[in-house]
Amino acid sequence: MNPKAIRQSDSHQGFALITGASAGLGEEFARQLAAMRKPLILVARREERLQSIAASLRKQHDIQVEIITADLSVPHAAEDIANVCASKGWQVEWLVNNAGIAGPDLLKDRDWQAQLTFFQLMMLS
Question: What is the pTM of this model?
Fold first, then answer.
């Protein structure tokens, strides 16, 4: 990420909401945006991991970091996340839609429930 891509005057207006933020690319997006002092909302299934990452980013960058524990493969999870943000007054300015699943097998070889979970997460959330 290029820090110059964010103008200083715009960097604190709203949150960046990052799904899949507990590991991998989602965690790295969080670290990069935190370094640019962007307030964050981290979303993933693993609450302990989110708490740890949030605490580290708060300490290192002195920014606001909120967490929402959610499984985006569950129907209506995205709507629930939006409702939490609205109820807390968190204005989401950026969305890093990073949650996903993968595996060694082909989608056509998965059972129907696994396919449904895949489509819910990858296309509807």
Answer: 0.80
